[in-house]
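Task: fold both queries, return tokens.
Query 1:
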Amino acid sequence: MCKSNWKMPFLEEAPCLIIVCGQSGQPYQAASTWLALGNMMLKANEEGLGSLCYSPTLNTFLRKILNIHPQFIPVAIMPLGYCAEGLFPRMPPEEEKVFKNILNGRFKWR
């Protein structure tokens, strides 16, 4: 990519890379693109997959190697796959999270 970020094992080793693009000139394209990315990451987590968001410093490299139409702006790269052993945090059951929030005073009754 560029000199400052040439070594990215999380991009090189991922079985799938999703390039998230926005359509230039559209109102709210940046917000819509980032919301879509967030929703994809939530769904990936729900399915037991690991993902992260990487925003490249130079999107001209992506445009060139992927032949992306000038109308679209590459905004982020989302590596997607099963995490290496021990790297995926255990999510507590929903009941446990709610109970802890009540005990810690982070849940307010109306």
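Query 1 returned. Query 2:
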Amino acid sequence: MDNIGNFDKLIKEQIDKMKNKYTSFNVKSLRELKFDELYGYKTGKYPDEVVYIVDMIIAYNYLQGSQAYRYDFDKVLNSLSGLIVRDSVFFSSKSIICKLSLKMNNEMTYVNTIEDLLYIVKSCALSNLFVQPLILQIVTNKVYATINELSENKEKFACVCDAIVALISYKVYYSSLYNSFAIKVIRYLENPKNKEPNRWHILTCLKKFCKGSLIYRINTLEQQNQNCSFQDISINLNKDSISNLLANSIEIYSSPTNTTEIEVKVYKAILELNNFLAIKTIKGYESRNSLKELSILKDLSGKKQCFLQLFGDYIIGTTLYIITEYIESTLEDKINKNKIQNQPFSNDEADEIIIQLLEGFAFLKSKSIYHQDIKPQNILIKNRDIKIIDFGVSTTLTTEENSINLYTPQGSPIYAAPEIKDALMERVYDKEKQVAIEYDIEKADIFSLGLMILQIITLQDIVGLNSSESEENRNNLVQKISGWKGRLLAGMLCNRPTERFTFKNALSYIPSKSTVI
């Protein structure tokens, strides 16, 4: 695309293409809307194709010099980012890039807060706008000036740290500036009188751009955070206390949209004692799965080390809030890190993790709870201690019920047992499809756990290893594993459920501490 005229032509072509497809509103009239009305289409539940046209119109009007867009620069940038992600051809044009860069340089004078600047930095990074040298230089100069202006403002420390980390991700270094800023922040955090709500986040950011003795001081501050005990935590849950916790938190997970009837988010929150908590919010909690998960959490809390400690739950409107202890990393994170570093789990470390997993899931079975979504993402790990989480699709049976029955398969198709994998794959393509099939729910969990243990030991990509046709490939991997773990996996990963281990069988393979090999 060589010029703005061609961009205008592309918009007209896209509108003509879409105007007959979406009859609920007039696509053609989008070009006549004011900015706020037009931007509203990005925040509503409109098809991606319509949002794409809206982004193009906003970008076109902005590049044409529309004065109405000057004071909504952050929203304009949001549209530019969305457009670049979807249509890199547009921003491969040198003439368009030059025009955009010059306008951004002028518009930067209207960025008055570090929060707005951070939004711009992150948007540029996510949309690969930083690939363009002119834009990178403009943003860098503004960040440099802003850090100098606001580094003394204690309330802005976290935002400045975020901006620096974003710049460093694109290899923009101002070592002397970053270090002098870091020293001020560290001195501030080292004063026990200063109760910084974003303390944990700031320390995480500082470690990404500090070196030498500063790292030692950061590690010391982190250790001070970790030395607080959960035993003394008492939370009086009410609407105000929930709001205060969320005010000192960061969102770390959000359920994909349009996949379920409920919306789930998880936040990492901090208390005054520098203890971290996890807050899980479930909007539309009335669903049976949500209440069932809460019931399981209450039943398991404090019963065994491999389950999260539950501090309480509270309902505000249609949202359920569940507050538990917080652990930073998942087993998936640990596996990926080891794989990248080409550093397998040590024999002792693997043994400890696997034994905890076997004992934890066997304990669930003893209480007639079947997880149904066993995978590394649902195992938290700190040092070598694991926590089993996410009971949203779990099944609880009565003591009289047989584990072989009609069930609607749940969980991830990648870790599912062969007998339910096909049913789960069908649901990937048809979200509404809920077909009950007869299978042994205990044996299905055993297979998923076995596949996860195989991944821990080998660090192999296990995608596709859970089909009936891949039995030979699984066996080849298992045969390379010596000792009790190899014998264990041979029984857990049988194709036929009737030949597969139960949890009782699996537990019998755990050796005593004196004989672990």
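Both queries returned. Flag for query 2: Residues 231-325 form a domain with the Phosphorylase Kinase; domain 1 fold (CATH 3.30.200.20).
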